[in-house]
Design goal:
Elements: H1 6-14, H2 21-40, H3 43-60, H4 70-106, H5 112-124, H6 127-131
Length: 132
């Protein structure tokens, strides 16, 4: 029996065969996990990114028209999810660690008032600016 193409499976899922999506998961889960792991550098978070990628792909598969290869579309979702995870992790650490690191690395170059002003300034930035 000939292996169905990605597009054939996508069309089956779009036609209501939800179980066919499992074929795509089986086909791409290892590669998506590898991409996620390379980006987030943590096995549990990579598993989460992989799962979120397939959930998002399934939810939006109705809008997939094949302008690009399914794999390209799926990898882009995975990449975006991994970047989002990295940003979220960075935001979580900013408040807890960044000011402490700044204090430690300054080795006394900043007085307490300056550190407080720097923290306030960071709080006023948009999250995407803070990550930088």
């Amino acid at each position: 029996m000939e292996t169905p193409t990605d597009m054939e499976i996508v069309r089956r899922v779009q036609a209501g065969d939800a179980e066919a999506f499992g074929e795509l998961v089986n086909r791409y889960s290892g590669r998506i996990y590898a991409l996620a792991l390379a980006m987030v550098r943590d096995a549990q978070r990579a598993e989460d990114v992989t799962q979120e990628t397939f959930i998002r792909a399934y939810e939006h598969l109705g809008g997939f028209r094949g302008a690009s290869a399914f794999a390209t579309w799926l990898y882009r979702i995975a990449y975006n999810r991994a970047v989002g995870e990295c940003r979220r992790r960075a935001y979580d650490r900013i408040d807890a660690e960044s000011c402490a690191v700044a204090e430690e690395s300054s080795a006394g170059r900043f007085d307490e008032e300056t550190v407080v002003r720097m923290r306030r300034a960071l709080e006023r930035l948009r999250p995407d600016e803070r990550v930088l």
